[in-house]
Amino acid sequence: MNFKLSNSVTSLPGIGPRYQNLLAQLKITTLRQLLFYFPSRWEDRRQTYTGRLIKTHYIPTRSK
Length: 64
Known about the structure:
By secondary structure, the protein is mostly helical. Helices cover about 20% and strands about 0% of the residues. The model has no long low-confidence stretch (mean pLDDT about 85).
């Protein structure tokens, strides 16, 4: 499969209208924009925490 950087992101397999809309919110419409998109922030999830490290004065709640 040949892709041009000027092609729409929908030319990629698996990118349909739903993901096209999500990418459009990030102002990504072409493959070039997708390739050169670098997030401005991220969450480091390499370290996990056990339940013992959670502060005890917080009461866990669950909403409906």
